[in-house]
Design a protein that fits this description.
The chain is built from six helices and eleven strands. The chain is of the alpha+beta class. It has a single domain (30-162), classed as OB fold (Dihydrolipoamide Acetyltransferase, E2P) (Beta Barrel), CATH 2.40.50. The strands form three sheets. Strands 1, 2, 3, 4, 8, 9 and 10 form a seven-stranded mixed sheet that branches.
Length: 173
């Protein structure tokens, strides 16, 4: 009878330990929320309370990449499309509180990845739908493809200019 109590105790202990380990693992995979006043770094990156957050699934033109800025052309006019994208994001945020849902894993540069919202509207979706950022199919699973198609069909933002996709610009530079 004494050995049965030990077996029950050990089995119960193992079950409790398993429960807590599993519970902690699930908690660690949940998204974290960061909110506050945002400082716009560029068209797809912000900083809140010192935390740099890269919008996952989209890509915006580069305002400064290895000493070079990405240029777009509207007729004969040279336009810094990275600065244009950044300015659009600043205008959209307009000193409103930004709430970001941060993914569990950072990107390869150790930046936090997430989707950020102003007044419950996705900044990523707003940027892509207005033509100031692009659906990044390599990472988005085409989450923003319809928004991009809308911008393209209506020649919004960069779709009214001659440009190269940011990933192609970085590859060349």
């Amino acid at each position: 009878m004494f050995s049965n109590k030990i077996k029950v105790f050990l089995l119960t202990s193992v079950c409790i330990i398993f429960f807590f380990v599993t519970c902690l693992e699930v908690k660690s995979q949940e998204t974290k929320t960061i909110e506050g006043t945002a400082f716009v770094v560029d068209g797809d990156t912000i900083r809140i309370d010192g935390e740099k957050i890269r919008f996952s699934g989209i890509d915006a033109p580069e305002s400064y990449y290895k000493g070079k800025e990405q240029i777009c052309f509207k007729e004969d006019e040279r336009i810094s499309c990275g600065k244009l994208s950044k300015a659009f994001l600043i205008k959209v945020i307009n000193n409103h509180k930004v709430i970001c849902e941060i993914e569990a894993k950072p990107d390869r540069y150790k930046r936090k990845l997430g989707e950020c919202f102003v007044k419950q509207k996705s900044l990523s979706r707003i940027l892509v739908r207005n033509g100031y950022a692009f659906d990044y199919p390599r990472y988005s699973k085409k989450k923003y493809a319809e928004d991009q198609e809308f911008a393209k069909n209506n020649k919004l933002g960069l779709w009214d200019m001659k440009f190269e996709f940011p990933w192609d610009f970085r590859k060349k530079n």
